[in-house]
């Protein structure tokens, strides 16, 4: 158990809909990362937050957004969903953004999103 | 820019035999290198990392990796494979020269250990 929790574990929805994925980082970790894992694209970095502020952006679509709250939990919002958005979405946390490249990341169990 | 390559989509090995999962990287400065493992329906789990120092890094579950600067490689190894080692393995790199603090992950190598 990494100490990172994600809810829900599974999500099935229809095209055009909007969903919210939730992540709670390990106790003491200030930095949260979101990744998308699909068979054809591999593990893609979406976005990073550190102590409530956006720190880095990766291959995140404009239809997607995220935020980190004062209690450090984070939410990833996916809107106008398309079939191609079906994937595993992982949240990870680490101690601090400044040392992010030196410290390993701790991954949650993921949310499997299926868009029908 | 930083990049990482895992040249093998799949590695097959018999239980008890040594295993190697390959990783090569490209960075401007010094590399910070990581290996993660993903078991079915689970998140990635940290195995080991190289930041500086000894080229041979020991990690969890008997795994080790050798940093080779001249060959820009960081291959994952284990002397004797177990069936329970069967999983997806990811190599990741971050360029110590600065820029993004976000590591780049390889596409993963599926390790299959046969009984």
Structure, described:
- The complex is a heterodimer of chains A (116) and B (115).
- Chain A is built from no helices and eleven strands.
- Chain A is mainly β and 116 residues long.
- In chain A, the strands form two sheets. In chain A, strands 2, 4, 5, 6, 9, 10 and 11 form a seven-stranded mixed beta sheet that branches. In chain A, strands 1-3-8-7 form a four-stranded antiparallel beta sheet, with no helix packed on it.
- In chain A, strand 4 and strand 5 (42-50) form a beta hairpin.
- Chain B has 115 residues and is mainly beta.
- In chain B, strands 2, 5, 6, 10, 11 and 12 form a six-stranded mixed beta sheet that branches.
- Chain B starts with a strand and ends with a strand.
- Chain A binds chain B through residues 2, 4, 33, 42-43, 45, 48, 55-56, 58, 90, 92, 97-98, 100-102, 104-110, and chain B through 32, 34, 36, 41-46, 49, 51, 90, 94, 96, 100-108.
Question: What oligomerization state is this entry in?
Answer: heterodimer
Sheet-strand content of chain A, in percent, reads over 45%
Radius of gyration of chain B: 14 Å
The poorly predicted ranges of chain A are: none
Helix content range of the residues of chain B, please?
under 10%
Overall 3D shape of chain A: globular
Helix content of chain A: under 10%
Give me the number of helical elements of chain B. Answer: 0
Structure described in brief:
The complex is a heterodimer of chains A (116) and B (115). Chain A has 116 residues and is mainly beta.
Helix and strand layout, with pairings?
The complex is a heterodimer of chains A (116) and B (115).
Chain A: E1 5-7, E2 10-13, E3 19-24, E4 31-38, E5 42-50, E6 53-57, E7 64-68, E8 74-78, E9 87-94, E10 106-107, E11 111-115
Parallel strand pairs in A: 2-11
Antiparallel strand pairs in A: 1-3, 3-8, 4-5, 4-9, 5-6, 7-8, 9-10, 9-11
Chain B: E1 3-5, E2 10-14, E3 19-21, E4 24-26, E5 31-38, E6 44-50, E7 56-58, E8 64-68, E9 73-78, E10 87-95, E11 104-105, E12 109-114
Parallel strand pairs in B: 2-12
Antiparallel strand pairs in B: 1-4, 3-9, 5-6, 5-10, 7-8, 8-9, 10-11, 10-12
